[in-house]
Design a protein that fits this description.
Radius of gyration: 17 Å
Oligomer: single chain
Strand order of the largest sheet: 3-6-2-1-9-11-12-10
Helix content: 25-40%
Bound molecules: adenosine-5'-diphosphate, aspartic acid, magnesium ion
Structural class: alpha/beta
Length: about 240
């Protein structure tokens, strides 16, 4: 019995089938006796499409309104995923970043997490529910406006929540089976790493490898949150990222 934070990226929840597939995996983790918190990204290319839509209205949208628009992507995902889990006979409650207590700076489009106060998540878990949290978003401490954490920011939401909840592990589910020595889509002979430490992962993320957002790795190192990166499409073990 443990507390697991699972994050599913956009490619894992690209359509209704993907939502249902992911819901089954979440329920499996719950059936294993764990408390489960799920962080979810916008479906497929939703974020890019919303940016494109905004640009058709105005070349330079205001940061506040762009963040309000983009956070809708994750909100669609969280509600659909909660419905898919409910359909499988388990209780699921979705929460926006703000409801989940993700407090940030006011820098729209690149806000930093200042604090996480996940009282409502803990309440949901204590009542036996699966908590679903919209990734990539928070609320500014100063302005009380909705903010986003920068592209790929759902990774950071997941690690920050895992730290605040003192989770046993933060599992990042994506469309590759782990962290490779190079991007496996560009370098077919890249090898999958069984484990890697925070410093090495920071270097890879800093060099632009988008498998994990740089800030999520910084957060994991600073709070010593063990991460496992793995595929949501297979059951093979992924890559562990720890202090070792
Ligand atoms: P998600 O939508 O799940 O957040 P991303 O597209 O952000 O997924 O990240 C996964 C992608 O990262 C993979 O499809 C892969 O092409 C890319 N990638 C880049 N560098 C690496 C690496 N070293 N190991 C694994 N994947 C990598
Ligand atoms: N949906 C956001 C993005 O596309 C956040 C994320 O996927 O992590 O950047
Ligand atoms: Mg990503």
């Amino acid at each position: 019995m443990g507390l697991i934070v699972q994050k599913y990226g956009g490619s894992s929840v690209a359509d209704a089938e993907g939502m249902k597939r992911v819901a089954n995996r979440i329920v499996a983790a719950k059936r294993d006796g764990n408390q489960v918190v799920v962080v979810v990204s916008a479906m497929g290319d939703t974020t890019d499409e919303l940016i494109d839509l905004a640009k058709q209205i105005t070349p330079i949208p205001s940061g506040r309104e762009l963040d309000m628009l983009l956070t809708a992507g994750e909100r669609i995902s969280m509600a659909l995923l909660a419905m898919a889990i409910t359909n499988l006979g388990h209780e699921a409650r979705s929460f926006t970043g703000s409801q989940a207590g993700v407090i940030t700076t006011s820098a729209h489009g690149r806000a930093r997490i200042i604090d996480v106060t996940p009282g409502r998540i803990q309440e949901a878990l204590a009542e036996g529910a699966i908590a679903i949290v919209a990734g990539f978003q928070g609320i500014s401490q100063d302005t009380k406006d909705v903010t986003t954490l920068g592209r790929g920011g759902s990774d950071t939401t997941a690690v920050a929540l895992a730290a605040a909840l003192e989770a046993d592990v933060c599992e990042i589910y994506t469309d590759v089976t782990g962290v490779f020595s190079a991007d496996p889509r560009i370098v077919p002979q890249a090898r999958k790493l069984q484990s890697i430490n925070f410093e090495e992962m920071l270097e890879m993320a800093g060099a632009g490898s988008k498998v994990l957002a740089l800030r999520s790795v910084e957060f994991a190192r600073n709070h010593n949150v063990p991460i496992q990166v793995r595929s949501s499409f297979t059951w093979e073990p992924g890559t562990w990222i720890t202090s070792q």
